[in-house]
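[09:14] KT: can someone run the structure on this one? pasting the chain below
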Amino acid sequence: MWKQVDESFWKENRESKVDDVADAVQDIIDLVRFEGDKALIDLTLKFDKVMLEDLEVSRDEIEAAYEEIDPVLLDEIENAADFIQRFHELQVPEDLWLKEIEPGITLGVKSTPLERVGCYIPGGRASYPSTALMCIIAARVAGVEEVICCTPPPINPLTLVAMDIAGADEIYKVGGAQAIAAMALGTESIEPVQKVVGPGNVFVTAAKTLLRKNVEIDFPAGPSEIGVLADETANAEFIAADLLAQAEHDPSSACLLVTTDPDMPKKVWSYMEKQMERAPRKEIMLSALKNSGYIIEKDIELAVEIMNGIAPEHLSIQVKDSLEILSKITNAGSIFIGPYTPIAAGDYASGTNHVLPTAGHAATMSGLNVGHFRKTSTVQIISKDGLAALAPTIAAISKAEGLYAHTESVTIREKRQK
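[09:31] RB: done, structure tokens below
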């Protein structure tokens, strides 16, 4: 179960299975494209075993959900929302900045929020109010005018309340690939969005990939994964707990320990066995551990190189000189440093976003942030003198490219000045 692996095992294991379900997902997309709401109702009955009367959640349903939530838990959801909002507010760029870089040449950037986005909130094996907070609050802080959500029915009351607290404008009882298709293409009840964000299973990920010509997406965000970088100073019990915390998400989740201590894997497994004895989701953990393992590397520099090559969704650094190692990390979705920084802190309460790229995509993509909900336009303001300074460069390069009208667009202005 807990086995020594190599880097290739991890990469092969985490390869996307999107291609395996692409044809089935395309059929779902086509149904939604041509049948709209009817397809959503039929597919929800087929996959979720729920017969829908209305696609959109009503205000009465939201208020009823509040009645089912323990007030103490409600306070903690609001506390988490506050931390998430505060962190994301630090990311908001200036709406406009301008700087004169040379006399008469002023350049800048204008940042504008998207107008309407869709957030996919998973259901299934667990409720995910935390994901609702992460997606919706980030969009709200970014300045998005309309934020809609789709999530599979029956919707857990806590997830419903979290979506309301975060500020969702519309909530729909639709999950799976059909939800992504509805948000991308639109139906009678659901107006299309500009961008879809949020994690999901392989069918959701495939739908996001196939619909990119219709709607922008954040990134592939599949089953949870964790990489732990540890030396002999690490606490094996803490590492075991962090590994199992991610393993309990889904049978397709994966955990990897890369350590310079040859005794660490055995210590960690001993604690994992003890902790699983009392774990309610033990069977899911055991399935996930089939996708998991450890790598022993003598040199910490090589251990870091391996981890950068893997680009894990979550990276826990448990070494003596953790900040020095942090400076060498180039590929990771979210980084957790030190023995008292569990992955669960980022999942729920610290404020950083837990919607992160998986399956190696952290090598080229960033976790969900305010920037995903804004677009930028460059700005230039050039005076007569500023254009005169640029004219020789413009003329030389445009003529070299054979684009003489570009040259003329400058010279005609120079003639006007005389």
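[09:33] KT: thanks! The chain has a mean pLDDT of 96.
[09:34] RB: yep, looked fine to me
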